[in-house]
C-alpha cells in the first residue's frame, strides 16, 4: 500500500511540477519543495474505503473531495467496479407528473428540446387500456448505438452504463438511427440553456456542445458519489427504482426491494425484448393503478397536452 | 467503327479544345452561380447550426443522405458500362466509355460531400481516420469509398494516357504552350511502344475487373448502413443487392442523358448513333426489370405479413408518400421498360426521356427509403411541433443539392476542355483481340 501511496504522491508532484515549470524555473523547484514538505510534515492518517472495496490508510493531505474531481474520458470508460446497474419503472404508478423530466433537464442544463427521459402515452392493443410510459436510455447490454459509432464516441462500461463523449462525437447521428428507442437527441443549435463553466465530463455531458449527440447518462456522476439518479429522487410517485444487479437491490428512494423478488412478484418485463438489445431497464406492468390514466393530462401546458393528441385520436379511432 | 481516322476525330473537337464560346461561358457561370448559392447555404448551416435544415431528432438524415446515395449510385455507371463492356470487349462501347468513367469519378468525388454536410462537427472529420472503429458500417464506407475512388481514378487515367500522348504529338490543333506542357506531363512519356501498349492493356483489364468488384462492395456497404439497423423498412436482407441494382439503374440512365447532351453539344452524331442509345437502353431495360423485381419483393413481403411496424410504414408510404411511391416504384420502372421494350418507341429522344424519368425516379426512391422509415420509429413520435414529426427540406438543403448537381456538370465542362470526351486512342485502335470473343 505504501508503494502505491508513494506512486500517487509522486505522480501528483510531477503533475504540479510540470504546471509550475510552465510558469517559471523557480516555480518548478518551489513546486517540489512544497510537495515534499507537505508529504513529510503531515502525520495525520485517515482510513478510506476505495471504490473497489478495500480499506486503505492514506495521508490526510492526499485526500481530495470526490465530487470536485472531474472524471475524464479515460476514467469514465471504466465504470464503477463490481456494479451492474439496473432500473425498474413501475408503470402502475406513473401519472405523467413530469418531475423526472424537469429534474433531468435542470441537472444536466438541457434545452427544452432535449428530454433524456421522455414520457410516452402508449396503448398496446385496440382493447387494452392506455398507460404512461417513461423512457430513459435503456443502457442496453447489446447496444446498437455503440456498435455503429464510427469513432468510439459512445461506449459501454463494465457497470452497464453507456456514455457519450461529446468531445469525440462527430455528429454523424448514426447512433440515433441505430437506437430503436429514440433515446438520443442531437444538439441542432447552440444549447439555449446557459452552460456552467465546468470542465467537461462524459459522465455529465456538461457543458453541451452544438452538433453532437446527447442522451441519458443515468447520472453517472451522482452514482460515483453513491447518490441516486435525479429522475429517481425527483419522482413524487416513486415510479422509478434504481439499483444494482450484483447486490440484487433496487430503491426508489423510499423503499428498497430485492430486484429478483420484484421481477417475480410483479411480472417485470423489458420493452421490445424481440429486438435483442437486452435493455437494463425493466418495467412493471400497469396493473392496480394508483391513478386514472387521464390524470396525466392535468396541470400541464397546452404544449404538453398537444403532444399526445394524435395518439389519443388514434386510440379513439380504433 | 472502321474508317474513323484519328485526325478526323480530333478535328471534330478542334474548335472546342482551341477556343471557348460565349455559350460555354454562359453555362459555366450559370452553374457557378448555383454552386455559389450552395456555398451560401453551407455558410448559413455552419454559422446557424443544423437547425437551419429540415432535419430534427426523428428524421436525423434528410436530403443530404438521399443525395449521397444518389451520387454514389451514379458512380456505378462507369464501373458497370466501362468495366463490364471493357472485359467483354464489345466494340460499340468505345465512344461512350469515357463519359461513363468520368461519371464514376466525378460522382464519387461529389457524393461524400453530402455526408460531410450531414455531420454535426465537420472539423472532427479526421476522427474517422484517427479513431476508427471497424465495427461501424461508416468505417466500412470510409475504407470502401476511398478505395473505390482511387481505383476508379486509376482506371480513368489509364484510358487517358494514350490520348494525352496523341494530343501531345498531334499538329492539327493549336494548343497554348501551358496546355501542351500539361499533356506532356500527363502522358507520362508514352510513345506507343509495344511494351507500353501491353502494359496499359493489362493494367486496364485488371482495373476493369477490380472496379466492378469494388463498386459492388462499396454500394453494398452503403446499403448496410441502413440494413444493419433495426429500423422498420431498413432492416432488410435484400438491401445490399437492391441498392446495387438501383445504382446501376440510375447510373445507366445518367449515361444516356450525358450521351444525349454531348451528342448535341459536340455534334457527335457520326460517333454516337442510335445504336448506342438502343444498346445502353437495353441495359437500362434489363436493369429496370431487376430493379422492379427487387422493389416488388421487398415491399410485398413487408406488406403481406402483418408486422406492426412494417404495416405502419407501408400505410405511410401509401398515404403521405403516395405520389412519390407511385412515381419512383411504378412509373420510374414501367416507362423506361415500355419505351425501350417496344421497338416503335425506340427513338433517341424517347430513350433519353425514359432515362431522365429513371434517374429522377431513383432520387425519389432513395427519398422514400430514408425519410418514411425515420418518421416511423418504434416508439411513436409524440411531439407538438410539426417539423419534428414530418421532415421537409429547407432552402439550405436544396441549395447544397443544386450545388452538387451543378458541380457534376461543371466537372464535365472543364474536362471536355482538356481532352476530347470520346477516347481518341480507343476509337482508332486497329486491332482488338476482343473480336474473337464477342462481336
Would you give an account of this structure?
The complex is a heterodimer of chains A (318) and B (439). With 318 residues, chain A is α+β, with helices and mostly antiparallel strands. Chain A has two domains: 2-63, no CATH class; 74-306, Alpha-Beta Plaits (2-Layer Sandwich), CATH 3.30.70. In chain A, 30% of the residues lie in helices and 17% in strands. Chain A is built from eleven helices and 13 strands. In chain A, the strands form five sheets. In chain A, strands 12-11-10-3-13 form a five-stranded mixed sheet. Chain A is globular and about 75 Å long. Chain A starts with a helix and ends with a helix. Chain B is mostly helical and 439 residues long. Chain B has one domain (6-379, 410-420): Formate dehydrogenase/DMSO reductase domain (Formate dehydrogenase/DMSO reductase fold). Helices cover 73% and strands 0% of the residues of chain B. Chain B has helices at residues 6-18, 22-48, 63-88, 94-118, 127-130, 137-169, 177-186, 194-227, 239-265, 274-304, 308-317, 322-341, 348-375, 386-389, 395-418, 424-428. The termini of chain B are close together. Residues 431-439 of chain B have low confidence and may be disordered.
Keywords, separated by commas or semicolons:
heterodimer, A: alpha+beta, Alpha-Beta Plaits, 5-stranded mixed β-sheet, 11 helices, 13 strands, 30% helix, globular, B: mainly alpha, Formate dehydrogenase/DMSO reductase fold, 16 helices
List the helices and strands and how they pair.
The complex is a heterodimer of chains A (318) and B (439).
Chain A: H1 2-23, H2 25-41, E1 45-49, E2 55-59, H3 73-76, E3 85-90, H4 99-107, E4 118-122, E5 131-135, H5 144-148, E6 154-156, E7 162-164, H6 174-178, E8 184-186, E9 213-215, H7 220-224, H8 230-234, E10 240-244, E11 249-251, E12 256-258, H9 259-266, E13 281-284, H10 302-307, H11 309-317
Parallel strand pairs in A: 3-13
Antiparallel strand pairs in A: 1-2, 3-10, 4-5, 6-7, 8-9, 10-11, 11-12
Chain B: H1 6-18, H2 22-48, H3 63-88, H4 94-118, H5 127-130, H6 137-169, H7 177-186, H8 194-227, H9 239-265, H10 274-304, H11 308-317, H12 322-341, H13 348-375, H14 386-389, H15 395-418, H16 424-428
Amino acid at each position: 500500500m505504501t508503494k502505491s501511496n508513494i506512486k500517487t504522491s509522486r505522480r501528483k508532484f510531477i503533475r504540479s511540477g510540470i504546471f509550475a515549470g510552465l510558469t517559471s524555473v523557480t516555480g518548478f523547484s518551489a513546486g517540489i519543495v512544497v510537495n515534499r514538505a507537505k508529504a513529510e510534515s503531515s502525520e495525520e492518517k485517515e482510513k478510506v474505503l476505495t471504490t473497489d472495496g478495500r480499506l486503505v490508510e492514506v495521508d490526510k493531505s492526499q485526500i481530495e473531495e470526490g465530487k470536485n474531481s472531474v472524471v475524464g474520458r479515460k476514467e469514465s470508460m471504466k465504470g464503477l467496479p463490481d456494479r451492474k446497474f439496473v432500473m425498474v419503472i413501475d408503470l402502475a404508478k406513473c401519472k405523467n407528473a413530469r418531475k423526472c423530466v424537469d429534474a433531468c433537464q435542470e441537472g444536466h442544463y438541457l434545452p427544452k428540446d432535449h428530454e433524456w427521459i421522455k414520457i410516452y402515452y402508449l396503448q398496446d392493443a385496440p382493447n387494452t387500456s392506455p398507460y404512461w410510459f417513461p423512457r430513459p436510455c435503456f443502457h442496453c447490454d447489446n447496444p446498437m448505438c455503440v456498435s455503429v459509432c464510427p469513432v468510439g464516441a459512445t461506449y459501454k462500461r463494465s457497470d452497464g452504463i453507456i456514455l457519450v463523449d461529446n468531445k469525440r462525437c462527430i455528429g454523424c447521428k448514426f447512433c440515433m438511427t441505430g437506437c430503436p428507442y429514440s433515446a438520443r437527441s442531437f444538439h441542432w443549435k447552440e444549447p439555449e440553456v446557459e452552460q456552467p463553466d465546468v470542465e467537461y465530463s462524459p459522465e455529465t455531458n456538461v457543458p453541451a456542445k452544438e452538433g453532437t449527440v446527447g442522451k441519458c447518462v443515468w447520472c453517472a456522476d451522482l452514482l460515483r458519489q453513491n447518490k441516486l439518479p435525479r429522475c429517481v429522487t425527483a419522482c413524487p410517485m416513486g415510479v422509478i427504482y434504481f439499483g444494482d444487479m450484483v447486490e440484487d437491490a433496487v430503491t426508489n428512494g423510499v423503499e428498497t426491494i430485492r430486484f429478483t423478488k420484484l421481477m417475480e412478484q410483479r411480472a417485470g418485463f423489458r420493452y421490445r425484448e424481440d429486438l435483442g438489445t437486452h435493455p437494463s431497464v425493466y418495467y412493471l406492468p400497469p396493473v392496480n393503478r394508483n391513478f386514472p390514466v387521464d390524470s396525466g393530462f392535468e396541470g400541464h401546458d397546452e404544449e404538453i397536452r398537444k403532444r399526445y393528441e394524435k395518439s389519443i385520436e388514434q386510440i379513439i379511432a380504433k | 467503327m472502321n474508317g474513323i481516322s484519328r485526325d478526323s476525330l480530333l478535328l471534330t473537337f478542334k474548335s472546342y479544345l482551341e477556343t471557348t464560346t460565349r455559350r460555354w461561358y454562359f453555362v459555366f457561370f450559370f452553374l457557378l452561380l448555383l454552386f455559389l448559392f450552395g456555398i451560401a447555404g453551407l455558410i448559413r448551416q455552419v454559422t446557424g447550426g443544423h437547425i437551419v435544415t429540415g432535419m430534427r431528432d426523428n428524421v436525423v438524415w434528410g436530403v443530404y443522405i438521399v443525395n449521397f446515395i444518389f451520387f454514389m449510385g451514379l458512380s456505378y455507371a462507369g464501373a458497370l458500362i466501362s468495366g463490364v463492356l471493357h472485359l467483354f470487349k464489345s466494340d460499340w462501347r468505345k465512344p461512350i466509355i469515357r463519359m461513363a468513367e468520368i461519371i464514376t469519378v466525378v460522382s464519387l468525388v461529389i457524393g461524400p460531400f453530402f455526408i460531410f454536410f450531414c455531420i454535426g462537427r465537420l472539423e472532427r472529420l479526421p476522427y474517422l481516420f484517427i479513431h476508427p472503429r471497424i465495427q461501424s458500417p461508416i468505417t466500412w464506407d470510409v475504407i470502401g469509398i476511398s478505395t473505390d475512388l482511387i481505383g476508379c481514378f486509376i482506371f480513368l487515367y489509364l484510358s487517358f494516357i494514350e490520348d494525352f500522348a496523341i494530343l501531345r504529338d498531334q499538329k492539327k490543333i493549336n494548343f497554348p504552350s501551358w496546355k501542351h506542357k500539361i499533356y506532356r506531363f500527363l502522358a507520362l512519356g508514352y510513345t506507343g511502344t509495344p511494351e507500353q501498349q501491353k502494359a496499359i492493356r493489362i493494367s486496364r483489364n485488371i482495373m476493369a475487373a477490380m472496379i466492378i468488384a469494388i463498386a459492388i462492395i462499396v454500394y453494398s456497404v452503403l446499403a448496410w448502413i441502413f440494413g444493419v439497423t433495426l429500423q422498420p423498412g431498413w432492416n432488410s436482407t435484400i438491401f445490399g443487392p437492391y441498392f446495387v441494382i438501383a445504382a446501376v439503374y440510375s447510373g445507366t440512365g445518367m449515361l444516356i442523358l450525358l450521351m444525349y447532351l454531348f451528342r448535341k453539344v459536340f455534334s457527335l452524331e457520326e460517333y454516337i448513333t442510335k445504336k448506342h442509345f438502343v444498346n445502353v437502353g437495353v441495359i437500362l431495360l434489363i436493369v429496370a426489370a431487376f430493379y422492379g423485381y427487387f422493389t416488388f419483393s421487398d415491399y410485398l413481403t413487408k406488406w403481406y405479413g402483418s408486422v406492426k411496424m412494417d404495416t405502419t410504414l407501408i400505410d405511410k408510404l401509401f398515404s403521405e408518400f403516395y405520389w412519390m411511391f407511385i412515381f419512383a416504384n411504378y412509373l420510374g420502372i414501367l416507362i423506361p421498360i415500355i419505351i425501350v421494350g417496344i421497338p416503335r418507341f425506340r427513338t433517341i429522344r424517347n430513350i433519353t426521356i425514359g432515362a431522365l424519368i429513371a434517374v429522377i425516379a431513383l432520387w425519389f426512391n432513395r427519398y422514400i427509403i430514408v425519410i418514411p422509415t425515420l418518421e416511423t420509429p418504434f416508439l411513436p413520435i409524440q411531439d407538438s411541433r410539426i417539423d419534428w414529426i414530418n421532415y421537409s427540406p429547407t432552402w439550405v438543403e436544396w441549395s447544397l443539392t443544386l450545388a452538387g448537381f451543378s458541380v457534376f456538370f461543371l466537372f464535365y465542362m472543364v474536362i471536355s476542355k482538356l481532352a476530347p470526351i470520346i477516347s481518341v486512342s480507343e476509337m482508332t485502335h486497329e486491332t482488338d483481340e476482343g473480336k474473337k470473343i464477342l462481336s
